[in-house]
Write a structure and sequence with these properties.
The chain has about 325 residues and is of the alpha/beta class. Helix content is about 45%, strand content about 15%. The strands form four sheets. The chain has a three-stranded parallel β-sheet with strand order 1-4-5.
Length: about 325
């Protein structure tokens, strides 16, 4: 079974629900942009318009068939995680989003959904995660920035979320934010080129050094794009661990993590496999975004891997991790 472990979906039914239910969210602002629906949460700036590919189920299924992909693991869209909403509205928003994701997966069995969580409140995030897992989700997709620019995943009040992830054995996909507050990446397309990686490596290094990944090891932490670059800097972080009292071993954290194949260079993929093991790397596309890999099996084919490594990467590991039949 071939499984793409990194996709994004905004179910078309959700777009209609948002328009109908907007009055339930006092802190939500809607803009009907010609390019697609745009939302602003709380005091945040408007999101990018939702691109057609995020809701084009038929187009996604056709692409999967062309690529020979049997299943796709889909989270929502980080722009619409709504972390700027007040906690009670955020919980209602995520519940509404999750109902739409689960309905889409029931209608299209090729889709495996990941829940959206109200990460602005650790206790609420834990509650929503437990409910989602009981409903049939395999885990959740969250942002590197749980409360927007400058926020961190190792904040003490997020411990109830981490405990819920550990208790349920959820896969936690930590997705880079589009805007992490770094102004230098706003030219040359660098927000996509390197901004997401620089954001991810800081966020993930924090939960590695804080001990979260080791402490909550029953949660399966998945970080895309070569684990956010952590394999490249793990030696430096180990040195940092040696000279910084009270920190945890980043190499142990890396050994517990999972990542995808969205490296765009077979040499980099081979390096990631050497650092993490083929059983920790899974096929990924980042569909429908242009920066993703729209022919994801090609890089695996071109990396010169052993047959058993290819089998693990293309679906074997994902089938076990996400409990896919």
């Amino acid at each position: 079974m071939i499984i793409d472990t990194h996709g994004h979906l905004v179910p078309p039914d959700l777009l209609n629900t948002i328009r109908k239910e907007a009055s339930r969210f006092a802190s939500l602002r809607i803009a009907e942009d010609p390019a697609g629906l745009s939302l602003a949460f709380g005091n945040g700036k408007p999101s990018r318009p939702v691109m057609k590919g995020l809701s084009d189920v038929a187009g996604r299924v056709a692409w999967m068939a062309k690529q020979g992909i049997d299943k796709q693991v889909n989270g929502g869209w980080p722009d619409w995680f709504a972390s700027e909403l007040p906690a009670d509205e955020g919980e209602r928003w995520c519940t509404m989003f999750n109902e739409a994701l689960l309905s889409a997966a029931r209608s299209e069995p090729r889709f495996v959904p990941l829940a959206t969580l109200p990460m602005q409140d650790g206790a609420r995030a834990g509650t929503v995660l437990k409910a989602a897992m009981a409903a049939g989700f395999r885990g959740a997709m969250i942002s590197t920035l749980p409360r927007g620019i400058g926020s961190v995943l190792d904040a003490a009040d997020l411990d109830p979320f981490w405990k819920a992830a550990d208790d349920t054995g959820a896969v936690i996909h930590i997705h880079p934010a589009f805007d992490a507050g770094e102004s230098r990446v706003h030219d040359y397309g660098l927000a996509n080129g390197v901004g997401r990686v620089s954001d991810a490596v800081v966020a993930v290094s924090r939960i590695a050094m804080s001990g979260h990944i080791s402490r909550y090891k029953n949660a399966k932490v998945f970080v895309p794009i070569a684990a956010g670059g952590l394999p490249l800097v793990v030696g430096r972080l180990k040195r940092n661990h040696a000279i910084t009292p009270g920190t945890s071993d980043p190499a142990e954290a890396l050994s517990l993590m999972y990542t995808d194949t969205i490296e765009h260079d077979p040499r980099v993929l081979r390096f990631v496999i050497e650092m993490m093991g083929a059983d920790r790397v899974m096929l990924g596309s980042d569909m429908p975004f242009p920066i993703g890999d729209h022919e994801p099996m090609t890089i695996v084919k071109n990396a010169g891997l052993k047959p058993e490594q290819v089998e693990a990467i293309n679906g074997g590991t994902a089938q076990k991790l996400f409990r896919i039949n």
